[in-house]
Amino acid sequence: MKRLIALTTGLVAAALTQASAAKLNVVTTSTMVTDMVKSVGGDRVSVVGLMGPGVDPHLYKPASGDVVKLQRAKVIFYSGLMLEGRMADLFFRMARSGKKVYAVTESIPESDRLEPPEFEGHWDPHVWGDPTLWSKCISTVVEGLSAGDPAGREYFAKRGAAVVKSYKDVHQWALKRISAVPKAQRVLVTSHDAFNYFGKAFGFQVVAVQGLSTVTEAGLADIAKTVDFIKGKKLKAIFVESSVNPAAIERVSKDAGVKIGGELFSDACGKPGELHEGNGEKYDVGTFVGMVKHNINTIVDALK
Ligand SMILES: [Zn+2]
């Protein structure tokens, strides 16, 4: 019996190795990109995400192990618009050496991109704040995966269409949920400017203590300005972000006498498989859809 189990386990292991060997080897950067590529790629793709939950993509420096993973990959997807500021050179070099490298945001039309004045001459990279706009990145993923695995083209296109629908559905769900928040309270105060697209999509005024990228830290003047603003608006709550140091927001909360309404996922999803409950349903915060649900429920419950 023991031998039989060992034999079966051996066979299963061999089958698994064979299956994963046949899969398209893909490397991704941020958790939102990783989830998107996994959702579109399904069983034909083996995805390694370089950045985990809680990791700040603005500050992420590739480790030597990452370079090896990238070199072994058949296809690479990153977010782009300078989100991964410290990896841009590496991607450029990889693309030049003939590697299939895609910035998923390249399929976002320029007319849909935001260019906030404080980020002089650069696009705002936080596109996933608007789920419908983020769904436009899926066509790049379908194209990139099909280039690496041409036999899977139809499979990727079909799955991609389903993922687009799920992003648009969660967008509609969010609009409905937000109607519970009085218009005067539709103001989102957070650590850094990750929510411009979110604000535009969902009708929120967005105020960040820190600038657009987390590379610069909030100064005392930024904190004082935010405190005045919150008092003037009589806001009920402000929010910390999972991938950004909460110190500045905690200071603002204390000085303005306003509560912290919860933690939002801004530049990274949560832990895959971790279920949160809100508005009477459970969702996996390690997925993009679960991330949106968590953020919307947290914001609505704190401001309504
Ligand atoms: Zn950011």
Please specify the SSE layout and strand pairing:
Elements: H1 2-22, E1 24-28, H2 31-41, E2 45-49, H3 64-72, E3 75-78, H4 88-96, E4 100-103, H5 131-134, H6 138-148, H7 153-178, E5 187-190, H8 196-202, E6 205-208, H9 220-233, E7 237-241, H10 247-256, E8 259-264, E9 275-278, E10 281-284, H11 288-303
Parallel strand pairs: 1-2, 1-3, 3-4, 5-6, 7-8
Antiparallel strand pairs: 9-10
The site of zinc ion has 5 residues, from loops.
Descriptors:
two-stranded parallel ribbon; globular; alpha/beta; Rossmann fold; single chain; 2 domains; 304 residues; binds zinc ion
Summarize the structure.
The chain has helices at residues 2-22, 31-41, 64-72, 88-96, 131-134, 138-148, 153-178, 196-202, 220-233, 247-256, 288-303, and strands at 24-28, 45-49, 75-78, 100-103, 187-190, 205-208, 237-241, 259-264, 275-278, 281-284.
